Amino acid sequence: MAWIELQFFFVKYKNIIINILIALWLVFTVRSCMSIKDSRQSLRENLKSLNDSAVYYKDKYGKEHARVNQVELSKKDASILFGKEIERITSELKIKEKQIKYYTSIKKETEGTFESKLDTVWKDSLVYKDGEKVLVPYIEYVGTTYKDKWLDFKGKFTDSSFKANYSISDSLTIVSYWKRKGFLSLGKKELYLDISSSNPNTKIINIDNFKISEEKVKRFGIGPQAGFQFSNGSFNPYIGIGIHYSLFKF
Question: Is the pTM of this model over 0.90?
Answer without folding.
Answer: no
